[in-house]
Design a protein that fits this description.
Structural class: mainly alpha
Number of strands: 0
Number of helices: 5
Shape: elongated
Radius of gyration: 19 Å
Order of helices and strands: HHHHH
Mean pLDDT: 85
Strand content: under 5%
Low-confidence stretches: none
Length: 81
Amino acid sequence: MISMPASVALNDNGIGVVLFICLVILVLALYWTPLALAYRRRSPDLVAVAVVNGLLGWTVAGWIVALAMALRPGGRLRHGS
């Protein structure tokens, strides 16, 4: 039986690497969305949102809690960059 070296098997299609990188960027952007929203809305609970999102965001329940905290009324929308 002829075996292919691992480097050839993993790198025979460069589009796979590009798609993987795009997927990682998309997942990270989605993961940190509650924190970005809390910052944009000037949430008074910004630190709490960051802690919950950072420590429990990998669970669906933790991510939803962080999102709910970020969307809670009380802050003003940031304008500009």
